[in-house]
Amino acid sequence: MRLALLFLLLLVLGPALGEYGLKLASEALILGLYAMAFNLLFHQAGLLSFGQAAFFGVGAYAMALLVSRAGWPFLATLPAALLASALAALVIGFLSIRLSRIYFTMLTLAFAQLLYAVAHKWYAFTGGDNGITDLRPSGLLGESLPFYYLTLGVFALVVGFLAGLARSPFGYALRGLRDNRARAESTGIDGFRHLLLAFVVSGAISGLAGALQGALQRSVFPDYLFWTRSAEAIISTILGGSGTFLGPAVGGAVFLFLRVLVQAKTEYWPFFLGLLLLLMVLFFPRGLGGIFTEAGRRWSTGVWGGAARG
Amino acid sequence: MDLGFLLLQLLTGLAYASTLFLLSVGLSLIFGAMGIVNFAHGSFYMLGAYLLYAFTRGQAEAFWQGLLWVMAAGLVIGTLVERVLIRPIYRRPEEYQILLTYAILLLLEDLVRFLFGAGYRSFPFPPAFSSPLLLLGTAFPSYYVFLLGLAAAFAFLLWAFLHRTRLGTWVRAATQDREMLEALGINVPLLYTAIFGLGIAMAAIGGAALLPLQAATPGMAVDAVINAFIVVVIGGLGSVWGALLGAVLIGLLQAFGILLFPEMAMAFPFALMVLVLLLRPWGLLGRPPAVRT
Fold first, then answer.
1. Count of domains in chain A?
2. Residues of B in contact with A309 (CB under 8 A)
3. pTM here?
4. What range does the domain containing A187 cover?
5. What's the CA gap between A205 and A59, in Å, rounded?
């Protein structure tokens, strides 16, 4: 219900946003999609992927190549991007999920960087570091407002899907595997297949986000696949709070708006972001979601003092 | 392709491997002993290059003192960073370690950009190594010899430290079983500070030693840290000799890969990293993790 109200608000807000605001809002929704895809793996399945950029990039390149080389209409490339990144996630996940903890994280990082290196140098196919440009979607979707509504629609669909997934037996099985794999498997849950499916779903959503981002930016470059892009998913998620359902999306939006605010004043945005991350990790490890939950708890109990930090 | 040319490529690869070893070995020790995933490691390599430039004011004659200053500064900075920033996150999950060290990476990158500007900073060969050497009719920078010697000296010193001193034995013990070490009354936090400081100092030396060959930019850290992770994963997280082997493999792969398949040379190290993780996740010279119940 609260979700529906939020979407209604975002829907009505559209025409009031203006050209620049629409672009920014679309980008925030896309980053939200991407971060929530990461958090499906991270929070539900307990897998820390450092290669989420691989699927973001594969989706973006699938869209870009189909639009620029095969002349597909943009909208038709979205299912293709979803499929391509799901396929990439199937292969990478199949090989990575066998590894435990840090080795899993390192292998996902290695795969994403491998794709980055290939995209960076394979000029004949991907355009190398020149990227693929001139990707304005034809027709109405080339305008900012319709594109914003498309992004909002995709975001709403995915959020609804993820909310359903979290409450489904599949979601319970994932959290069971996260908390105690041996115990979950002894109840008959096939750990590998569940985690692989979660990996593929997460990859597919990331790919969708990548395709939308490429269309929004009108271009796709190898840095869509670079490891700092994977770090952005982690930053958004922890900033917003991984334990709160919409936390990663809120974190992504806050991340973007802060960037715009800071970049208007100074060129040293990375320094500011570094400082923010440092303070967050050291003092507010549960992110904005944690701060609000805590504030809400204190509001209802009326206790504001005490040693705990809010 | 004549023999002299192949030899030149071999030496180029080994010279690159030397700096790669200095960069990576600290990362390996820090992960192996402390369990910290340090994404800021490449930033101290970058910082080392800039510090050399700052200490010498770009004067080739001051290279040797500069190198010593960089080592001292690396020790101090590493110790401080461990005490103030890393210590609070030892028992926190990996994602917080990644974010915190990534934050350090961002801070240092912008700090250097603020102090030195975004452009390239280069440095001449030090006077003793300014003229090229001739070998099989091919000229190559004599500075390569210095790099090889530097890496060999550090590898030997590190081996002697780890295997011939009490402190080194504790470091090795920390990679095996921290709790046991604590139970024996060893001051493990102090040991961690020492390991981190040492690792950072070596990375800084590596970056400084690379400067005469390759100009420094604030953005070099994001690539350096990934190269370091490749080397360390291939060699085995926590293994010193693994870092050496990994560095030599990646150095040669780069030097010869670019000759044979210029288009794909950039992808080779990652492909090798993937392959090692699939076949032997604990690395070529690492130990399979003990089964904990």
1. 1
2. none
3. 0.90
4. 2-226
5. 9
